[in-house]
Amino acid sequence: MIKKWVTANPIFRRKLDWFITSFALIAWFSAFHSRQKLISLSCVEKPLFCHPENLNPVDKWGLINDYHWLSDHLSFWTQDGAGLFAVLCILRFSRDRQAMWTHLLLFLQATFINGALNESIRLIVQRPRPFVYLNPIGQGGAVDHYTSFYSGHTSFAALASTCALIVAMDTRPTLRWSVATLGIFLTVSTGAFRVIAGRHFVTDVLIGALAGAIIALWVNRLHRDAQYEEAV
Asked: Does pLDDT of 226 surpass 70?
């Protein structure tokens, strides 16, 4: 019997994987381009609903008065760094070329699913970004300013870091703590920079990190179980 975090066979030989990945990518693309039609400018229509006093204590504490351009740029760097970190771990730690492609494809599939879920929830919740609460009339006129929940940057950083850890646990268990530490650092840094930049609330990045990690674990667990059933 073989138990692996990730299947050692190419996952895209299965039609179901092609369907899931293609559907997630199309759903992500469609949801993103539906913002103009589906998001309402609620803070312009009803400014009182976007008053800082309506925020929960945690998000009220994290409300930033000014835009910090450096933190905004750093959040992109740490997010991209997490993605690069995951790819490097896959390339370096995979047992062979076949396993490497499997890990990469699982990472890609999880990324598309995460993007589709993130964008769909944004369209449903339509939460204004922090800076909109400080100036509802002036900043509430753009649909992109109603996509605060949840943080896409943080969710991707958590997803990538989790995928890197899964590969390390599967092939380099002695390095799992080093990989986990760096992954946590990249994820926490990304979330902190998004909050400091005034782009997201604290709860946005917390839920984002949780969502990204769960999706990465779920996608890899499904394929691990499939491989286990074949090997029994």
From this structure: no
**According to the model, what pLDDT value does residue 134 have?**
87
Nearest residue to 52 via CA among 145, 125, 128: 128
Contacts of 14 (CB under 8 A, 6+ apart): none
Q: Which helix (H) or strand (E) holds 16?
A: helix 15-32
Taking residue 162's Cβ as centre, other Cβ atoms within 10 Å add up to 26
Q: Where are the domains of the chain?
A: 71-231
Q: The pTM is what?
A: 0.89
Q: Measured in Å, how far apart are the chain's first and last C-alpha atoms?
A: 5
The CB-side HSE value for 112 (13 A sphere, CA atoms) comes to 18
At 6, give phi and psi (nearest 5°): -130, 135
Q: Largest Cα–Cα distance in the chain?
A: 62
Q: What percent of the chain has pLDDT over 70?
A: 89
Q: State which amino acid sits at residue 21.
A: T
